[in-house]
Amino acid sequence: MGATLPPKEANLFKLIVKSYETKQYKKGLKAADAILKKYPDHGETLSMKGLTLNCMDRKSEAYELVRQGLKNDLKSHVCWHVYGLLYRSDREYREAIKCYRNALRIDPDNIEILRDLSLLQAQMRDLSGFVETRQQLLTLKSNHRMNWIGFAVSHHLNSNASKAIEILEAYEGTLEDDYPPENERIEHGEMLLYKVSLLEECGFFERAFEELQKKETKIIDKLGYKEQEVSLLVKLGRLEEGEKLYQTLLSMNPDNYRYYEGLQQCVGLYSADGHFSPDEIDRLDTLYKTLGQQFKWSSAVKRIPLDFLQGDRFREAADSYIRPLLTKGVPSLFSDLSSLYNHPGKADILEQIILELENSIRATGQYPGRVEKEPPSTFMWTLFLLAQHYDRRGQYEIALSKINEAIEHTPTVIDLYSAKSRILKHAGDLAAAAALADEARCMDLGDRYVNSDCVKRMLQADQMVLAEKTAVLFTKDGDQHNNLHDMQCMWYELASAESHFRQGDLGLSLKKFLAVEKHYADITEDQFDFHSYCLRKMTLRTYVEMLQFQDRLHSHAYFRKAAAGAIRCYIKLHDSPPKSSDEEDSEMSKLLPAQKKKLRQKQRKAEARAKKEAEEKNEESSASGISKSGKRHTKPVDPDPRGEKLLQVEDPLLEATKYLKLLQKNSPDSLETHLLSFELYMRKQKILLAFQALKQLLRLDAEHPDCHRCLIKFFHKVGSMNTPVTDGEKLVWSVLEAERQTISQLHGKSLLEANNLFLEKHEGSLMHRAAVGEMVYILDPNRRSEAVKLIEGSTNNLVSRNGALGPIPEWKLKDCIAVHKLLGSVLEDQDAALRWKVRCAEFFPYSTYFEGSQSSASPNSALSQICKAAVNGTSSHSPGDNVVEHVASNGKLDTFKDLTI
User: Fold this and answer.
1) What's 798's DSSP letter?
2) Peptide bond into 180 cis (omega under 30)
3) For 329, left (φ over 0), alpha (ψ -120 to 50), or beta?
4) Taking the C-alpha atoms of 521, 524, 530 and 534 in order, what is their torsion angle to the nearest 10 degrees?
5) Distances (CA, A) of 710 to 361, 503, 685, 738
6) How do residues 630-670 score in pLDDT, each as one tens digit?
7) Sign of the torsion angle spanned by Cα atoms 802, 805, 809, 813
8) Do 421 and 433 meet the contact criterion of CB atoms below 8 Å apart?
9) From 316, 355, 688, 706, which residue has the greatest number of CB atoms within 10 Å?
10) What are residue 477's phi and psi, to 5 degrees?
11) Helix and strand element counts for the chain (H, E)
12) What is the pLDDT confidence band of residue 274, given thresholds at 50, 70 and 90?
């Protein structure tokens, strides 16, 4: 301690430290106050009191006391250490590291501070510093196992696996022959497996295998031992031994796909891309028939051959695989088979098989070539599979007829309604899809998955109020937003954010997108506790895997969607900033007195309603926040429930750039990353950065219509710029001129010529023609009619996608919607947009966007049938709106009205 205390106060100070460690904060505060009564300027006591207050959520007082204590005793390592702990609790890790380093200058051999510093260095990936700190810890306390292991792991993380091996061997040299004792056998075995994995990573396969064999009796994890052994055997080329060991592993778990893959490697029949010669297919077929006799109950041994078999043999194997699963009634059968649709020709064979089964069961009640009668449910599951098949092909009319027949056959199976909901969603009738999903949900109110599926459909249909009231049925205390956020329910937040974005509510959309981004920040923080835990428990292989996963965490699909969504919100906010109060006042002054009065009344009612809802919510949370002990648990109040403060940023593009940099670092091969980058930098007038994004787009997919748009837009923008004046502008201009010559699409061509050449290459594609038409208009606004004619000249040809799905219409619903928006908003030709809508209504009769004849707006639509059934009493709810009047005590949504979008 800096300033020495008398014995009585020194004992009280020890009590403060002990009370902090045992979380007896009031006791610690009492002891601190007793010391400060006599010694009010004692720095270390002030710091410890501040640290205790920090644990009681009194942060401002805590920081003030700790800073005061540090000021009173700058040469106390305790004060600096406490200051570091304070920063660490607030995730200010870099500041905490600085404080720890200052503490170590005063007391360089303090093990506790060194240990805390090493944890922060591992968290921040300061790997060289991590190595240095762990070495110092080992030097100070070499009889502690954790210090040896930590030093080895630090070198491994710092890309020096060979040094880590040396350290582990040195540690083993300090052990006695009869080590480990009974209570440490598992941990020691994990350390040995970790050492073997390091040897394998360094390429010392022979040495690793010898080490593994030598230490077999000391390794408790026998499955891990066998998996490590077989991996080394394969790398050593000892394939016969590897084959036998894989057979042993398969006898332990015959449904592990990795074991089958390894076995194929051992017999020389493995292909990374899944392509095999006819001879290899014959050998694989023989292999799996033999394995099938050994592992008769294995599903994997029957499913894997479907990936490599072709023609009649595929037909025979698929037929044998499908029949028992239909008889058993496995709802996930189509999901199991869906990957086969990417193999040329296999989807057509599957269709033939399922149709034959359907016809035979319909006529005789038996499978073809069988005398045993099938149970009635088999016919229903066959129709169910066939409906999903036609849905995948885009033949929604047939798919709906099959699923309707299945529902008529057995109207009590929930999966049928969920499948029909998916078909309607794909067909474009989102409102009817949401209604069908709710129909399925009401059939089993205790099924969380079906409830979540229903909520997702409602969000896709922009039925926000209905979705929220449905989601609340499975959340704690009826507080769906906080509860779903606490559970890191990212699919809900992303779907909700997209819905708000479609409806133009940028505040709530941005709030939801940033909530997902915060989840990833929390996941990054969650690794902190594992730095010491994994070293203590010796789960070293898993620990290293976890750190590697954390390093690529932001490349996850959900983060990519959230970051891209946030960027789109900020770009839209930049393009259409919210109106200032002055602008609103000027608009108000233009209104007639009666209109002003009406508008003010509307605003007052909205404010009153919002206030009442907030009060009710506070009352509910207060009532539900009382525990059995009588203590009130107050939940933090959201200061910005509508996300309005998020919109009040001075520079939206600057905020967007923060998330763009994360995407550029973690998703460099995503087309969307560079499209957003291009849009952002063009708005910021960062010409070279925009060109860099353009080059990345051309690298990834030069023939993509969006890449072509960016290419033409960029050089059209550059061509319209003023003649460069400054040296910097001249340099940029010369760089762009030189780079233009390297772009094959523009080499020796004007932008119009490049645009026409792109059309010649992709004349049959709707989206490519739309891109060319848009660029015709951009280059010359007087040629609008030519651009419109070019787009309307597109034809919806029948194509065979991937050579697998047979002839189906080429146009996709989302592409046609994009073209309609292009005609109406960019080209500003409302007549053409109307003609396009009428034309697409024929191709997409279930689309509510195009108001197709079978969509929710039509009397013959699926939704209208649901509503009629509800009126007749055959449905679980009545027809209704995207606003629910109330939720009954049994959880059913009682009242709907006009469920249209």
Assistant:
1) E
2) yes
3) left
4) 160
5) 55, 27, 15, 18
6) 444 455 667 788 888 899 899 999 999 999 999 999 999 99
7) negative
8) yes
9) 706
10) 60, 15
11) 46, 2
12) confident
Q: Which two tokens stand for residue 154?
A: 């630090």
Q: What one-letter code names the amino acid at 55?
A: C
Eight-class DSSP state of 808 = E
DSSP-assigned states of every residue in 527-580: GGGHHHHHHHHT-HHHHHHHHHHHHTGGGSHHHHHHHHHHHHHHHHHHHSPPPP
Q: How far is CA 523 from CA 161, 526, 528, 551, in A?
A: 27, 5, 10, 11
CA distances to 62, 440, 491 from 456, in Å: 44, 13, 8
- 893: three-class secondary structure by DSSP: strand
For helices 530-537 and 540-551, give the axis angle rounded to 10 degrees.
160
- How many residues does this entry show for the chain? 901
pLDDT for position 882:
36
Residues 6+ apart with CB under 8 A from 68: 43, 46
In this prediction the pTM is: 0.87
- The identity of residue 761, as a single letter, is K
- 547 token code pair: 């750190």
The structure tokens listed for 653 are 């593009």
Termini Cα distance of the chain = 70
Residue 296 main-chain phi, psi, to 5 deg: -65, -25
Helix 784-792 to helix 766-779 angle, to the nearest 10 degrees?
180
**SS3 annotation, 437-503:** HHHHHHHCCCCHHHHHHHHHHHHHCCCHHHHHHHHHHHCHHHCHHHHHHHCCCHHHHHHHHHHHHHC
